[in-house]
Amino acid sequence: MTSEQKFIPKITAFLCNWCSYGAADLAGVSRLSYPSSIRVIRIPCTGRMSPKFILQAFRQGFDGVWVSG
Amino acid sequence: MNEYIEQEARKALEEGFDGVLGLKNRWGQTGPYLFRNEEELDDIQTEPKFGLAKTIRTMLKRRPDLKIAAVLRGCDVRALQELEDLGEISTGNLRYLGISCSLEQAALCNCAKPIYDTATCTGCWNCLEACPEDAIARINTCPILQPSEYNSGLAQRKAIYIPYAQAVPLKATRDREHCLTTTGVMDCKGCENVCQAEAIVHDDQERTKDIEVGSIILSSGFQPFDPSRFDTYSYAEFKNVVTALEFERILAATGPWMGHLVRPGDEQEPKKIAFLQCVGSREMNRCDNEYCSSVCCMYAIKESVIAKEHAADDLDISIYYMDIRTPGKDFERYYEKAKDKGVRFIRSRVHTILEQPDGSLQLQYVTDDGQKLTEDYDMVVLSHGLEISDNARSMAENMGIELTKGGFIQSSDFSPVATNRSGIYACGALAGPKDIPQSVMEASAAACAATSNLSQARHSMTREAQLPPEQNVRGDRPRVGVFVCSCGINIAGVIDVQELVEHARSLPHVEFVDNNLFTCSQDTQDTMARVIREQGLNRVVVAACTPKTHEAVFQETLQAAGLNKYLFEMANIRNQDSWVHGQEPETATRKAKELIGMAVSKVLLNDPLEEVKLDITPAALVIGGGLAGMNAAVELAGQGFQTHLVEQDSQLGGIGRTKRKTVHNEPIQTYLSDMTRRIEEDPLIQAHLQSKVSKVSGFVGNFTSTVTTDGQDTEIEHGAVIIATGAREHIPEEYGYGQDKRIMTNHEIEQALSRKEIDPGSMNTAVFIQCVGSREPQRQYCSRICCTQTLKAALEFKEANPNIQVFVLYRDIRTYGERESLYKEARARGIIFVRFDPESKPEVSLNQDSVEVSLTDPLLGVKLDIQTDLIGLASAVVSRDNSELAQMFKVPVDEDGWFLEAHQKLRPVDFATDGVFMAGTCHYPKPIEESVTQAQAAVARAVCMLSSRELSLPGTVAVIDQSKCVGCGVCWTVCPYQAVSENENKLAEVNRALCKGCGTCVASCRSGAPDLNGFTQEEIFAELDALV
Q1: CATH architecture of B616-728+879-951
Q2: Per the CB < 8 Å rule, is B575 touching A25?
Q3: Which of B546, B999, B1002 sits opposite A25 (nearest CB)?
Q4: Is the Cβ–Cβ distance between B820 and B292 less than 8 Å?
Q5: B480-605, what's its fold?
Q6: ipTM
């Protein structure tokens, strides 16, 4: 990547079905906008979050992993 | 300028134009109007309030032949020209009557170059190019703007609008009073034209329906007090004086400034905010609201803390109050925390607010010690109270329902949700000012009371869905169907839906792809079910909105087609794609493709899951035979369920046996003996006296409990349990208690009065001391009932002996709700109230023949020595030791020993453990009427479950691979629902009835033995792998 190119991080978000996933839906209802380089994976609870998912996301080439719940 | 416009308009009409479109003031608001004859033109308004371009667009689209002249601003004309360029309209028949904007209007529109010299304007419209306002972007359907109710008027909405982001159902509603079409102003129908679902029917008429019902519940709530009545607070005049409800909207992420804390006057961040309490409550001078609104102290504290969290650290907040009333569960702790966070509490009623030139506000007030002070604030929040609307009052009057002095629904303390008319019940703030937990409890209680008489008819009108048998697709080659939804233009307006369809076709195992305008519409659902059968699909993906709202809808379609409902996934391409990436259609389309790819990868791995059905034992166990427990038992039997009532004492009634009257002077003993008789006579209730629960096993719907009576064990099968073990009085350690018989607790005074052991008639002085053991560091809660009890006793003393001097030494008087009338009466009767701080408590000294109380009066600043014949101590209510029960039912207690509900606001009678409920003072100190309410509420919650014939357990639960499990026990330690336990082989085992499918056990296991159905390791990896 050259210094002129703007770095747009690819982020995967593991969102709890009961709170953050609903909040992401609400962001849409409120017509907020955020970068389209984010991908959401719905999980039933952040309790389900396994370190393996985070490692696998980085292995897949994501620049960041966001866990919210 | 007026003459010019009017002259030109008349000319146009004379020339045979169909009309002149301009603005006219109707019903106090300006709107577009088509002037068709000269007489009407007298009313034409020439202040350009808002643009007419969109109105013209709508009109010309419908009637391109219409020949009209229109009064237009520069920006309107530019918009129309652009519309013509886009081929949307033809302006050939349109005559422009140019109007210039005033400086004020230009400032409002943020217009860079307004024309303000109307005389010299030649109408060349060069200024259009200079207008920074994107007129085209503003042209969306509805031309009307109204203050948004949801945002307390701080933002605007259209005449067709979605009330708020979380509205259920999340659908548009129409404001018939302002819609141009329904009010007959013009034939707009802009929304009807753009609605592809054809859901808008403008000529729809209001209909009246007759519904036959067995019971009615009134729950029309309150209206916030409107402080514009008070000139003191200048709410109507000063922009930076707001109500607490407006402040709440300002703080909200969905509010007018998206949660950014600014003041409305100039949208600057305030650095200093004052809250003024009791606006429209406890106020008899300017309004007739004698009562305390119960909720304002707590919401003011909460809003203060949240505002401090939103703003930078230096936000200074003061709350001006008379008494801080935080008698709810955990409220006192919150109050103390707010003080720690720097919220200032100033005991004073502000008498004057003055506005400064910069919009800030000067408060003038007098402190406790008589100092006159002034202080400047950037913003003032009025903590306005709760009121009953005139509509609600007349509704009650029409129904013949009695109201209290404050206008709330009148009820008995023993049937707190019943009105004077049998079959009509009331709950929530309509039945008295109250907060959310209490309203939720009353709602459940009203449901219990309203269904009690109808329990015979239960299930008689239920219709059950007929589903075809489920086909076994296990092991079949996957055949995936993908349904891509356009959602009108919500998705298709941003995302290239055809590209998605092509992409989906290219994915492995996808056998069928379709695009629908609205996938959720009933006809598409029917088509989908047919396609699944015809194409032999065994997996389905819907790319549309969010599974949060629509997963269940589509799963039903799968079931209707004979497929297991878990063979389904959704790709969220609307809420989390087209709606949030509207500006980047290309990347939004790319994202949508990936989301569909993810869903297909996951659905390929989905297994059909089984929903286990469990039978329910239609019986209940009530633990504790006090007022709450007795009520619960009677109500459960009334609902038709076998009930076991366990009481450790030899008699029913609990602490109620020692009390005479309720707050409204209703006789408790008469009520108790009536309830005891009903329990004894009811064949459905079995009372187990001198008994305790010694062992419990099972889970929701299927408990087995052992009740031990005199060493004899009885096993009871039951589906639900209500815990109502009550509380007890704290034994004071201070104020000389126990050293002299003239120093008694309030409870002892109550007993002594009923046994006539003390005689107020022979006394000269009585002193009551409040907060004995409550609101102390070791017991940081308010006992809720003592202020009322003290005032009742003090008034009784005065009644018996008008010459007696009664002192009440207090910290804050907390006569919440309509109990405030007791406080008012007490002051009117000459009872003397002296406040003290916890740092300078009253001191009690014992002499040979007298008891003396001394303290410093903070108002007068003098030391008072009171010789008294009696000291009444308002001793705290404390919890019983419930640890054994808590362990048996696996339910938590909080740090003060009260049972902890599943959610303090929304599930105030449920435990997190299904099938276990609570009622009465084991939850928190409360008066009789609130205990009865909670008992009825707990019954309603229990009956919800007991009345279902079977319990359906979701398929998305954890499963343990026994071959991988080593029995280390981590999973059963971390499971928050006690669903995992050790089996006979010393390995982990999941109880499906208790598992909530959170997956914590899966994440905790080092051997990978547990997995979560529906969200397996493999499935989540597959989703990740599909993302590139």
Answers
A1: 3-Layer(bba) Sandwich (3.50)
A2: yes
A3: B546
A4: yes
A5: Rossmann fold (3.40.50)
A6: 0.95
